[in-house]
Design brief:
The complex is a heteropentamer, with one copy of chain A (217 residues), two copies of chain B (219 residues) and two copies of chain D (336 residues). Chain A has helices at 13-23, 35-43, 57-64, 110-122, 136-144, 193-200, 203-211, and strands spanning 4-9, 28-33, 50-52, 73-78, 80-83, 100-104, 129-133, 151-154, 166-168, 177-183. Chain A is an alpha/beta fold and 217 residues long. In chain A, 55% of the residues are buried. Chain B has a single domain (4-212), classed as MetI-like fold. Chain B is 76% helix and 0% strand. The chains are: A alpha/beta (217), B mainly alpha (219), D alpha+beta (336). The structure holds adenosine-5'-triphosphate (2 copies), molybdate ion and magnesium ion (2 copies). Chains B, C: Keywords: Cell inner membrane, Cell membrane, Membrane, Molybdenum, Transmembrane, Transmembrane helix, Transport. Chains B, C: Part of the binding-protein-dependent transport system for molybdenum; probably responsible for the translocation of the substrate across the membrane.
Chain lengths: 217, 219, 219, 336, 336
Amino acid sequence: ETPLRVAVAANFLPTAEVLRAEFGAERMTLHPGATGQLYAQISQGAPFDVFLSADQTTAQRLYDEGKALTAPQTYAIGRLALWTPGQPAPEFSQLAGFARLVMADPKLAPYGAAALSCVQRLVPTWQGQWLKGTSVAQAHQMLISGAAPAGFVAWSQVLTAPEAEVRLLPETCHAPLIQQAVLLKRPAPHPAAQAFWDFLFSPTARQQIAAGGYAAP
Amino acid sequence: MLHPDDWQALALTLQLAALSTVLLLLLGTPLAWWLAQGQGRGRALIQTLVALPLVLPPTVLGFYLLLLMAPSGPLVALGLPMLAFSFSGLVLASVLYSLPFVVQPLTAAFRALDRDWLELAYTLRANRWQCWREIILPLTRPAFITAAVLAFAHTLGEFGVVLMIGGSIPGETEVLSVALFRHVESLDYARAHQLAAVLLGMSLIALFIAYRGDRRVAL
Amino acid sequence: MLHPDDWQALALTLQLAALSTVLLLLLGTPLAWWLAQGQGRGRALIQTLVALPLVLPPTVLGFYLLLLMAPSGPLVALGLPMLAFSFSGLVLASVLYSLPFVVQPLTAAFRALDRDWLELAYTLRANRWQCWREIILPLTRPAFITAAVLAFAHTLGEFGVVLMIGGSIPGETEVLSVALFRHVESLDYARAHQLAAVLLGMSLIALFIAYRGDRRVAL
Amino acid sequence: MLRCDFRLTRGSFALSFNTELTPGITALWGDSGAGKTSVLRALAGLDSVAGVIPRSAVGYAPQGARLFPHLTVLENLRFGLRRVAVQDRWCAEAEVIEQLGLAAWLPRKPHELSGGQQQRVALGRALLNQAPLLLLDEPFSALDGATRERLGHWLRDVVQQHRLTCLLVSHDRDEVLQLADRLIWLQQGRVTQQGEALTLAADWAGPFADQQACSVLPARLQPERAEHGLVPAQCAGGTLWLAQPSVAISEARLLIHARDVALSLEPLPSASIQNTLPVQVESWRELNASSVLVRLRCGDYALWSQITRRALNQLNLQPGQHVHALIKAVAMVRHG
Amino acid sequence: MLRCDFRLTRGSFALSFNTELTPGITALWGDSGAGKTSVLRALAGLDSVAGVIPRSAVGYAPQGARLFPHLTVLENLRFGLRRVAVQDRWCAEAEVIEQLGLAAWLPRKPHELSGGQQQRVALGRALLNQAPLLLLDEPFSALDGATRERLGHWLRDVVQQHRLTCLLVSHDRDEVLQLADRLIWLQQGRVTQQGEALTLAADWAGPFADQQACSVLPARLQPERAEHGLVPAQCAGGTLWLAQPSVAISEARLLIHARDVALSLEPLPSASIQNTLPVQVESWRELNASSVLVRLRCGDYALWSQITRRALNQLNLQPGQHVHALIKAVAMVRHG
Ligand SMILES: Nc1ncnc2c1ncn2[C@@H]1O[C@H](COP(=O)(O)OP(=O)(O)OP(=O)(O)O)[C@@H](O)[C@H]1O
Ligand SMILES: Nc1ncnc2c1ncn2[C@@H]1O[C@H](COP(=O)(O)OP(=O)(O)OP(=O)(O)O)[C@@H](O)[C@H]1O
Ligand code: MOO
Ligand SMILES: [Mg+2]
Ligand SMILES: [Mg+2]
């Protein structure tokens, strides 16, 4: 029997792996991708049963187009973090001294948009250049490589980094990073689909999601 | 040393690369031969069309291919099975995307091939197939090696198209490059480095063997 | 017809592709010449190393290149400026990534070139440069066209490496492929189609001209 | 008998070729650029032409050898051979290799051979294709005289033995005279003369007229009277002594070069010139500042003699005068 | 004078070449595979060798033409020429094009030419390189006899006029005798004989001995006594009548082929053979079943005569006997 196929926005992949282990690794597979890419695939008939989007709009769009069985439900709320690998994280006001900052492309990822809005609010005088990755994962890679000194990533990505290097951004300076999921329409609904859907919103899952660096709804 | 999933991806990748390369050579050779026969506007156009997919970013190409292969797309309308998110779809996409790497060097080589060798071989009772095996292939071997190496290596590393068309279904469409992407996205850099090392090591050996075997055709 | 941002990306892309292609030819030609001189294990190894970047998924390659170019990386240690996230870095990455498309066909062509033509030209008072211009280049022109077309087209479409190395800074590193990718990923399909059409149209014309000009070298 | 009747054009050059090829060696003679290679290529099926072309397998040795560069000498030799059923082979590989002296080079690649060696391999490859029609484009042009002559004779034997049809392009008059049964003269893409080789050779307006004239006389040999390696031949009312041919034949045709014919008012009993024929002076024409070509009647045949103008004057030759033609015994003999 | 002294090996083939090249035409003679092309390539600097090689610009016409396939005939011809300063040019493009008959093909690509046409372009390209050392590898092998002879004479004139040093590979004995001043005989990669061409030609053990023997005699011409286009020459105690050379010369050396020499016990007053010399029989050796080669003493010189064994017997020749050598007047003359 084919396992349940869960398309997952790349930023949630590490946490999704944990959930999968909990749910039963043999019963489901994860299909990571950028949210936009996954949307394109799903709307062209990709055989995914569940979609964990990185935002609200994409999930809603699928629902509006009749591609989803259920209305979108929030499964996680992301937190944005400033990360300066190898150095103590600076005060936000000190950011003005950075010539370049890394973020996910605001056009492609809500975390990018959030980073943009935070900087505009906290350091309106900043005149530097944005280095944009296609996703928070790519932003993370740019920072890991050491080529860029500081940037905004998902908190979930830097949980294991030394605490001093990371500074969590106040949720007030950006729109909430609401990540929503939908159950997708399939010719024949997967027997495990509903079970996973229930599991995703179960307390156990919420606990894991919270442990993964998200605010569970 | 590798995770079983990665082994599966590796096997799938080799399958894809090998199959694509074989198909590319089978398809590209007659096409290149035809292209080499003349200089007409039609041929230049075909040659251009062959190279054209190359100028699109792989994910974008993948997107258009997806539109083409989708249940509502023209290929299905033509009666083909739905190829998106299947291994066959990957093969089709890889072939299309790597076609210029095969057609381009082969066309150049076929054009440079002196037609007299063939005609001489015909007078010496060689049939078409023997002409190919005994004259054309040996005399244009460097171009075939170029074509095979570029096609194989490019299929190994290609990722955007494959991810878009394939959707990373383990055992079906999750090839090594996609697995590598997955490791990187899930911040599992250790596994990513490991996989990259295996990929590089294997390719190093395969390419080295190909190049060592590429003895100069004495002219 | 195009958004001003896209125009800027287009200009940057053409600059990158043209510069990379020129550099690739300048770099690839002597390398291919040297590779064509013999068959030693060393040469096979170099040829392998040239093709090796191709087997890595572009973003992964980009990641490793970033490691290389980082302030603490070996390139800076060697005294180079920090190339990451700059146009120069893009050029370097593109050159590295497209090198096999140039080296591979040129090596094959140089190997097939009868050394006697050169020696004959030397007896006819041609110096090294004249030999190149009057003998080698015309006789291996199809391979140069192959090389240039593949390198140019691949640089146009290449995206993963560029994205990683460049960080898509508008006017500095945001090339057309990145812009196109962004439109597709952000579901801005209308603009994506438009940009893809422009890219394809332009490439169609450029490639068509290249192929029409590729007259058969009569042998 | 193979009918050929075709036309082709290449730029401003137009070729039209109409003949019937018969077994034996037919020489294709003509100036550089006359179209000889074009004829052979057409017959080999290499260029498509309009008209009739024999549909026969061919053994084609192109001008300039053209060995397959990626194959060894042996592989080149066997390229056609391999595809011929054993019972259809009449030309033995071992014989070809031995005759052409290729044994030492079999494992070599063509570029490791000298020009003449390559040419011999090309000839071998053509012969070993076991085809009834041989097309040889200047097959001996890069060979030294001795090899050339030996291979020529061997080729002639092979062609006769297996009743092959061989079209041989050559620029060498002696080679043509020694080897060819028939001769086709190509001028600017058209056949201007064709016929029996020796007859054409002796023709006043034939291809060899402006080089050196020669005559052809039929003779009846008497091998039973041979002495000192010479055999007497009754020819045009006289007796000529010829080098004894290796096979016993009784009919022969003698080719006598005009420059080998001297004239004397009286017979010469005490000279080493063995062969004299009584002849009658017919006419003469000037060849150059110092020599004339004299046409002599000799029984029913014409005989040419090239002498100096000074001799013509001193002997005071007159048309109708009876004189003695002195012929050096080394003239050529060819089977009936 | 150009000193050459080098060695090279190619597989099992070893070449060693040691000579001094002097202005004029030096023929390089040898069997197929003897190493002629290897010598020329080495002198052209195409292969690196150990030893001394003249450091001179060369005009090299390779075996098999080898025209640049991507250039037109005119571009091929001018390939070297373009790089020579105008004041250093001694060979005029127009003359070369006219003499070689290339005018009609200038815009063509090499593959649109016949074999012989290509060869002529290659010769032109070599000449137009304006180099003092010409290396010609069988430059006439694909040409018809008439063109060959005309071009040979023209080449000889060009070489003489500009005091060039020309190394000419040829398999054609007559060509060598007509054109070459010196002769180098290459056998299996070694120089076995070298020297003045006519002297070597007449050598009993020279390169031409096993083909057809010939003798060389010095003569004093008397142009003032010329008649009927013949000029008398005092030679080895007799008078020979020769075709008058185009330039007035008084010293000449005559090349007399053994087969052009007959013997008579008495002088012949009434025959067209104009030239007789009193000679003394020295010895003879058998050439083949029917003929012998007789060595005659003729003043201080040796003269060869090829006669039949039957004649030898009939004349009952004895060593020491005085006889008359009959020499056809068409023998070759070469300037002193
Ligand atoms: N790469 C090689 N390996 C071994 N032997 C070689 C190689 N190249 C040439 N030879 C040999 O060197 C010898 C000399 O060759 P070369 O071409 O100089 O002969 P040539 O005198 O020009 O003969 P031809 O009259 O046939 O042109 C030949 O016997 C040839 O087989
Ligand atoms: N593509 C072409 N365009 C125009 N003329 C051509 C072309 N190919 C050949 N010719 C001409 O055709 C004529 C015949 O050529 P061919 O090779 O048959 O001559 P050939 O008799 O073999 O001469 P050779 O003795 O020099 O080898 C030549 O005058 C040549 O210039
Ligand atoms: O998880 Mo995203 O949609 O690539 O930021
Ligand atoms: Mg020809
Ligand atoms: Mg040679």
